[in-house]
Amino acid sequence: MSDRLLLEEACPASQSLSWKIHAQAFAQEGMQAWLDFRIPYSVTGNIALARQKAYVLFESLPQGTDPVYVLELGAGPGFFAWHFLQAWQELAPDRPIHYLLTDFSRATLEGVAARPAFQVMVETGCLGIFQLDTPRPEALVAISEVQFEIPKQLHAIIGNYYACTLPTTLLCWQEERLQERWCKTWLHLPEGFPDLSPEQSQALKQWVLELAVSQKISAQALQNLHAIFSQESPDTLKKLTKWAEVLPFELMNELDESSYYEPIQFSGLSEKEIQLLLNAGQALREQSFPWPQGLWERLKQLENWLAPNALFFLSDKGYYLSSQSVPADLSQPSLHGNTLAYPLHLDLISDWLRLHGWQTAHTPYPFDPLQTLVAAWRPSPQNSWRENFAAHFILQNNNLDAARLVRAAQDYQTQGDDQTAVGFYQKALRYRPGEPRIVHELTACLIRLGAFRLAEEMLDIPVIDLYQQFDFDYQRGQIAFFLGEPAQAIESFQLSLIEQGEYASVYYSLALSYLALAQEAEAKDSLKNCLKLEPHHSAAQTLLAKIQTP
C-alpha cells in the first residue's frame, strides 16, 4: 500500500505548491468562500476598524473640498470598503471620496459588483471596483462602471489581512549566515490506498496538480482518476471516488512537507535592505521568521502613485520583536481551508518602510492577535497623522475593546454560560453597531435562555448583513414557535429555506410547526426532507415513525 505521493521536488518555500494552491483557492472560490467563512475576515469585515481608519485619514488631511482617493488592496467581499465609506459620509458629507476597491480574484469582485448596496456607491461615484494584482495604475482592470478618473495620486492605501496572504519566504540564521527554507511536497494518501506503479504515480501526480481546488470535483476529473486505476475492483474505485470528492476542499491539509535550509541568494535588494534581513536573523538566532518579500515589491511600485502625506494602513496578524512577546514558532502558518497565512514580522516591515522614506507607528498590544501599523509617505512636519493614529488606535481603540468582549462572550458560550455571554455581546455591539455576527450569536444565547421576547426585540435592530450570510429567518421561526405562533414560524422557516438553502434543522423545526397546526401531511414531507439531508437525525426518525403509526 502507498501512504504518500511526491508532488513537488524541493524549491524555496515562497515558490512551493502550498502557495500555488493558496492563490488558486483565492482566485477560484470567489465570493462563496467568504460567505461560507472558509476565509476569515474578522479584519476585512470590521465595522470599528473601518471607522477608526476613516477618522485618522479625515483628521490627517488638510481641510478643503478636493476629492480624496483611497486604494484598498485585497478587498475581498468589500465589507471594509462599505463601512469605511459609511463613516466617511458621516465625517465629511461635502467632501468627495473615490474609493478603489481592488482584489486579484475576478470571481470575488464580480460578486461585489452584483450587490445592490455597492451598485448605489458605484453610481454615485464614490466607489470603483477593479481587478488588480500588481499595484500600478496602468494595471487596474475595471469590473464595475467607474464614474471618476483614475487618480494620479492616492491619499491612502489600505491592506487588511493582505500582507500575510502574499507568498512568504521563511528565513533563519544558521551557521552564522542567513538561510532560506526549501520544501519538498508530498500528498498524504489514506490508509488502504492501492500500491502505485511508477506510471500510476506520475499519472496521479499530474491528476492532483490539475485538480480545481475548493470546488466540487468534475465528472471528467473522476473519469480520469478511474482511468488511472482501471484494474482495481469496483469497491476500491468507490473508495477512491469518495476520497477524490473531498480532496479539492482539503488538499492543503493533506500535504506533507519535508524542509531544509539553504543559504539565501539575494536578488534585487539594496545593501541596506539585505542588512535589515541580516539584522532580523541575528536577533532571532535559530528561530525561523517570515519575510513577505511580495509586500516590499508591491509597496515600491506604489511609491510613484502616492501624494505627499499619504497614509498606508496595514492591519494583520503579527508580532513585534521589540515587544518581547514573540510566538514560539513563527514558521507555522494558520490554515483556512486551502489558504494559509503567516504572522508578520512587523519590526522588519516597519524598518523597511522607514528606510524608504516613510514614517511609522503601530498599536502597542503584544498579546492581541490583530495589530495595526500605519505609515505616512514623506509627511510634512505639520501633519498630525501620528497624533490622530494615537487618538483612535491607542488612547481609544473601539475595535480592540469589541474584539476582547466578543472573545470573552465566546469563552462563556463554550462553558455553557449564555447568561454572562449575553452581557459581553451587548457591550460589544456598542462598538460594532449592527454587526450581524454579534447580533446572531446574541440572539442565539437569548433563545437558549428562553428569553424569546428579548430575542424578538434583538432581531428588530438594524443589521448590516450585506450578503445575507446569517440565518435570521430561522431564528425568527424559532422565536415564533416558542411564543405559540406556529403559522408565523412556518413562514419564517420557509423563508430560511429559500434564502439560506436546505438544512436538516430547518426542516425538522418546520415539521414541528406543521404538527402544532395538525398538518400531518406537510409535517411528514418536512421530516422526509430532513432525513434526506441527515439520514441519522434520530429525533426526525422517531417523530416520522410516530406520525406514520396508525
From TrEMBL:
<dbReference type="Pfam" id="PF13181">
    <property type="entry name" value="TPR_8"/>
</dbReference>
<keyword id="KW-0802">TPR repeat</keyword>
<protein>
    <submittedName>
        <fullName>Uncharacterized protein</fullName>
    </submittedName>
</protein>
<feature type="repeat" description="TPR">
    <location>
        <begin position="402"/>
        <end position="435"/>
    </location>
</feature>
<dbReference type="InterPro" id="IPR019734">
    <property type="entry name" value="TPR_rpt"/>
</dbReference>
<feature type="repeat" description="TPR">
    <location>
        <begin position="504"/>
        <end position="537"/>
    </location>
</feature>
<dbReference type="InterPro" id="IPR011990">
    <property type="entry name" value="TPR-like_helical_dom_sf"/>
</dbReference>
<dbReference type="InterPro" id="IPR029063">
    <property type="entry name" value="SAM-dependent_MTases_sf"/>
</dbReference>
